[in-house]
Design a protein that fits this description.
5'-nucleotidase,  domain 2, inorganic pyrophosphatase (n-terminal core), 22 helices, Purple Acid Phosphatase, chain A, domain 2, 28% helix, 6-stranded mixed beta sheet, alpha/beta, 5-stranded mixed beta sheet
Length: 722
Amino acid sequence: MAAEKAKKTIVIGHKNPDTDSICSAIGYANFKTLQTGGEYVPCRAGELNPETTFVLDYFKVDVPKLIKSVKTQVKDVEIRETPGVSKNISLRKAWNLMQEDGLVTLPAVTDKNILEGLITVGDITRSYMNVYDSSILSKACTQYANIIETLEGAIFVGDEKEYFDKGKVLIAAANPDMMEYYIEENDLVILGNRYESQLCAIEMGASCIIVCEGAGVSMTIKKLAQERGCTVITTPYDTYTAARLINQSMPISYFMKTEKLITFDTDDFIDDIKDVMASKRFRHFPVLDKEGKYKGLISRRNLLGARGKNVILVDAGDRWTGNVYCDRAAEPRRPIIDLMNRLRYDVATFGNHEFDAGQAFLGVRTAQCRFPVVCANIVSDTATFPQPAPYAIVERGGRRIGFVASVTNYDHNNHPAGHDENFAGLTFTDAVDAVADRQSLRDECDALVALTHIGTKKDRVLAEKAPRYDVIVGGHSHDETNETVGGVLVTQTGKNLDNVGVTVLRFRGDELVEKSFRLVPLAGYEPAPAYQRMVEGYYSDPALRAKVADLRGRLDKTGLANVFTEAVREAGKADVGIYHIGGVRLDSLAGEVVAADIYNLDPFGSKLVTAEMTADELARLVKTKFNDTVNLDESHRIDIYMTTPYVIRTDERFEAQSVAFPELKPGRRYRVAMGDYIFKTYSGLDYTDGAPTGTLLTDVLDSYLRARSPLAPDNEPRQRIE
């Protein structure tokens, strides 16, 4: 979403204005405002003479504002709003922050946002490469908290807020008898789990000992260290690694540039600072406001476009399920979070698939998001993840944009689509009402946006029920939506990140005067190199690229559903195999099939279930799903595919009245195989003898395709509606 101030046009006369010049500027500005509806402002370029002052005073006309220059200023340029950090953070933490956010310069500021210095990637690199004496850690006045963080350790004795400010760093590799000759008072000693070495270091007056390889510390050592004022820290690293890393715990204040900093003011003119920037080797320069407080960084690249658009990046849910390279990463589903963090998303909500791996997992991944994840219709005192805020207000370009969110609860048992156990302890209030009840937030914002994962049909209902919303950014139904309902702009971008939705809000003064939406297909864009390298790293897993089978043609959606049904029938040694079309997560498949394709077909970890059912029970299952009054997006269509043909007969209202199975005998019980999602969530099933097998459907598909490679696609539907 982009929100920008409406353009203001200045109408001005000559530099030494007389009455004619001033009155012409006033008259023409008013004429253009009335003619175009735009904002035209009369101004003057010089001081008024007595005659003009008299005329304006006589007719009670405001004196036009004095404009000394119309040159572009720093405040007209989109600066990088990089947050400042404390000068006491470690080199390692600064380096990690720079890598995560793609920075080369990091500003150090006080708690009142006053600039203290700058640290660059080059400064940190030089600190690693230069050779320092063994006392550099104390000369830098390194806080023990930094040492603990860098070594991923824990403190057993002492105060992490204290500083190592005297002595040198030593590795106790020698016999304790030899240690007495080189350990001096106040030294920091890195050692192993030998009791004698720990004892010797403390008795020689060491101010700190670091015990490596996660070794324990005896009560005797702990008591002696307390008596002698020796800090004791443990680390899981070996002595070599600890010695290599420890200098990275030094504060950035020791290396950052603090003198003769080149800064710019928000009111500085771009023409005046260009030469300064060109003459210096620095990539970025700090920008300060009128009070001298740090605002952000500016580079020569920022000067290429004055007054860039104010962009807010949002996500409407279902962000981390469905891509095997994300689902099966070393930290499952973490890659998408890392990408979104680096892209600097501003706000997101939950989709139903955020719950697929359980609430505890959801809590961990949500905590890793460096942007708010909001939802107004989740209520719980027993959830295993923090209660989300109902809304977020994002400030951009002097505007306040409110985002109120909700997730669908219409799919099954008053919770989002998914297994019941994933929603235990959670209450989901009506998704439309929860957002509609928050429309008074519009009084606090310049614009109000509903960020929903409820589908286009429900979004239309919301627009009619809550007209104070300006825009609805929706998800769940995978539509490409751009329509206005009751004055509310309703949008959705489709699926699989085929498109990016761009919603533009334009303001005139305090009034929102224009809103529009467009889909931007991503197919024609070259990926940014930095992000391309990240994605290629995720896609490099050779196990996921391993060949499973070949196809002699293209399997379409129906063909893939047929494969599912045949595969589960065979694996379950069943008479009938069934599957739901919503569980087939690819639209087509052709040529070489690799392991990743199998996981992308079923990314949910679905498992095989078998049950005994009659033809009547199967008919009830199909009929109930076809006439679904809850999940309307899945009703009045063939949702359930089977290995055996069936016909749905409908009435004039297109409601299913009966289902016929030509190849099944009435009264006979058949062994039926299906996925556990159908077994657990679909109405109309007789579960009395159902039995989960524990077999993953991905394994079922893998075996089925391997045994039939090369497979000739069968895209003919076995089910029809009359």
